[in-house]
Design brief:
single chain; 7-stranded mixed sheet; 5-stranded mixed barrel; OB fold (Dihydrolipoamide Acetyltransferase, E2P); alpha+beta; 19% helix; 45% strand
Length: 241
């Protein structure tokens, strides 16, 4: 059964490669014998995405796996540096030239399917589509903190600066695009803004009352549906109350 699955997967990947190979898989002009036969790569692989190059048909990823670093290519999709992904099988191409990115890869692995890819993107889109509602809460400031009302009212003054906020966690999503996502409210608002989104490595739970310090960024677009007028990044959990 495993052999049959391997053959089917390899045929699917070779179809992807073939679509590009007629125009892009070729040896550099100074070495017309450089193109080699694809080789299979089996077993399970867990990779950390370090660099992303988006082209019209493919997404090219420079990844780390243990102490190894290498390039892989897959069907175009909204992937980000910092993601942790998994795949089982791939085909290696040596001296692969892509006209789209104007680059020849000494070695690149074509991957047909990656676990964690669609789930991360789906979580991102689901998080963005969920409509937040204002909670009936009243959480005062702590030493050195500002309210959500003050944050939004004076957003341009705070841009690029580290601020402290004290509030209640209304949503927590872990491990999306290499970070955790927190929605925080304190009962104050500025216009329609009553909720601040925070990215962090800390782990909290819904309804926790917490203190976060993070850098203010405006007009931040992470792709995959994550776009924010204001967000606190690289936040540290200072205390829980």
């Amino acid at each position: 059964m495993r052999v049959k699955l391997f053959v089917v997967t390899m045929m699917a990947i070779m179809t992807i490669v073939a679509c590009d190979s007629r125009q892009r898989v070729k040896a550099p002009e100074e070495n017309p014998q450089a193109t080699s036969t694809p080789q299979s790569q089996g077993d399970s692989h867990t990779i950390l995405v370090k660099e992303v190059i988006q082209a019209n048909s493919y997404t090219y990823l420079f990844v780390a796996e243990g102490d190894k670093e290498y390039w892989i290519a897959t069907a175009k999709q909204p992937l980000e540096a910092g993601m942790t992904l998994n795949y089982d099988m791939a085909l290696e191409m040596k001296d692969f030239t892509s006209k789209e990115v104007d680059r020849t890869f000494d070695s690149i692995f074509f991957v047909g399917q990656m676990r964690g890819t669609s789930s991360a993107a789906a979580n991102a889109m689901a998080s963005k589509k969920t409509v937040e509602t204002a909670k009936d809460i009243s959480i005062g400031k702590v030493d050195g903190s500002i309210s959500i009302q003050e944050l939004y009212t004076n957003r341009t003054d705070y841009e690029g600066k580290v601020v402290v906020v004290h509030g209640q966690v209304t949503k927590f999503n872990a491990g999306i695009m290499g970070r955790n996502w927190v929605h925080l409210q304190d009962g104050t608002k500025s216009g329609d803004a009553f909720d601040v989104t925070i990215t962090t490595n800390a782990v909290v739970s819904k309804d926790d009352v917490v203190v976060f310090s993070g850098k203010v960024a405006l007009g931040k677009d992470f792709g995959a549906g994550y776009k924010y007028d204001l967000i606190l990044e690289e936040a540290e959990l200072s205390a829980e109350s």
